[in-house]
Specification:
The complex is a heterodimer of chains A (243) and B (105). Chain A is an alpha/beta fold. Chain A has a single domain, classed as Spore Coat Polysaccharide Biosynthesis Protein SpsA, Chain A. Helices cover 43% and strands 16% of the residues of chain A. A 7-stranded mixed beta sheet of chain A has the order 3-2-1-4-6-5-7, sandwiched between helices. In chain A, strand 1, helix 2 and strand 2 form a beta-alpha-beta unit. In chain A, helix 5 packs parallel to helix 7. Chain B has one domain. Chain B is 83% helix and 0% strand. Chain B is built from 4 helices and no strands. Chain B is elongated, with a radius of gyration of 24 Å. Classes of the chains: A alpha/beta (243), B mainly alpha (105).
Amino acid sequence: MSTPAAIAEKSVLVLIPAFNEGRSAIGVATSVLNLGSAYRPLVIDDGSIDPIDPKDLPRGALFFRCPFNAGIGVATHIAFDHAIARGYDYVVRLDGDGQHPAERVPDVLAPLLRDEADLVAGIRINHGQGSGLRRMAKSYYAGVASMLTGGKAPIDVNTGLFGANLAAIRRLSALDLERFPEPQMFVSACRMGLRVTSIEIAQSPRESGASSLSPLRALAMFYRFHLFVIEWLLESGRSWLAR
Amino acid sequence: MVLLFLWLVRRRLVLIDLSFPWFVALFVLGFAYNNPFIDNYLTKILMVSYPIYAIIFLTLFILLGLITIVLIMLTRDHRRQIELLRALARLELSSQEARSPASAR
């Protein structure tokens, strides 16, 4: 795939977190390297039971293995830390299960390159199809996020595909990202005054592994998001009273 | 209970520092159970009919307090663990970048 001239002068760190998705994560890293020399894949094995062998990764890919399952938030922090330390221009996150098409990475970067946005979300147009509960949950998260941000948050705040410029990375790295950090990250980005936009993507079927979102974890994610909302409401109430 | 606790500490299953709140809780409970003055005082301030209810309330309060203390300790340890992990990742990734710079690909 050809690399647009504007990208060729930039450096893009592509985070690929993987938990028991070794085979597909290696494929995603290869696809990222095929995009051009500006792209540097960073595969983070988040404490998989069957660990990824770094020798299986394509040459040029960075690799780190967490000795335990620390969560996607920690993997995101590791990528942000590295991007800041090495001065990467952009960070893009793709899931290691191959559900996010690597060939759409340049589209995610396009609004960042045009300086129209600081953070770009890849909203999944086919996510939750056929599952009433998933659709309901997605609408609920989107509704609450929209209410909190005055309609600035993307309509899919649970998407794992996003791209951010260095300014956004610096601001977002101050957050406390844990497991399933996406809704908190997008809402916080809007509240910080970062320019958030989105592009539509079609999510591919999972190549390997299973979703880490079990019913119990979904409940924990719901709980975490609402604690974040309560904290936000308290903070807003305090600043309103101070005025 | 105290013997069980000592056994856990001796077997290195419980850290001495972490066991301190448990030791204090056992001491407070034991003292409260055997002191009629404290029982009567708690019965009065908690506005319950019998001293045994006051002791049950005190036990539940201490248990919840202990759980909260353990949660705080675990949270602190988890945060330190994550900080160490991030520092380790920074070192490891920097060394990989030095071995295989992006421009060399």
